[in-house]
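Module 6 notes. Inverse folding takes a fixed backbone as the condition and produces residue identities as the prediction. Think of it as a translation problem where the source language is geometry and the target language is the twenty amino acids. Below is one complete input and output pair. Work through it position by position during the lab.
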């Protein structure tokens, strides 16, 4: 980045590029950084058969649920489409539910992240290997 900036400044000084073109090159050179948010959450899990939509692998937003890769969140706290990173594992926030929004599992204290798994057994094994109240990264 610094080398590119120095090169552009040198070319403007030498008259190779007009100032406006050099400014455009600088804008294209610097992509915006994606912000990272850290939250402490209450972790829960859900699986197929708990409601009619999950039996069809459909989320409330219409996206396909993927076992161990998608989760339900409160979209006012964690926007849909965000990547939720828990202990290095990534989940895509594509679903929600009334218990998640009401923070029922945390008695209204912490945001709830509800991980989707194909079976109850998979969900219990996964939750058994994760802390109940982890710090998560939201990207």
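Target side of the pair, the amino acids:
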């Amino acid at each position: 980045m610094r080398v590119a900036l120095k090169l552009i400044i040198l070319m403007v000084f030498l008259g190779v590029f007009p100032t406006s073109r050099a400014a455009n090159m600088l804008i294209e050179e610097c992509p915006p950084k994606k912000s990272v948010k850290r939250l402490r959450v209450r972790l829960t899990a859900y699986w197929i058969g708990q409601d009619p939509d999950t039996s069809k692998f459909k989320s409330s937003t219409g996206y396909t649920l993927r076992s161990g890769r998608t989760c339900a969140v409160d979209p006012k706290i964690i926007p849909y489409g965000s990547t939720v990173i828990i202990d290095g594992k990534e989940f895509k926030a594509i679903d929600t539910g009334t218990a998640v929004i009401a923070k029922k599992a945390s008695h209204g204290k912490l945001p709830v992240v509800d991980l989707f798994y194909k079976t109850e057994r998979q969900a219990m094994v996964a939750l058994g290997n994760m802390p109940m109240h982890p710090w998560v990264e939201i990207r």
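Reference fact for the lab report: The chain is about 30% helix and 25% strand.
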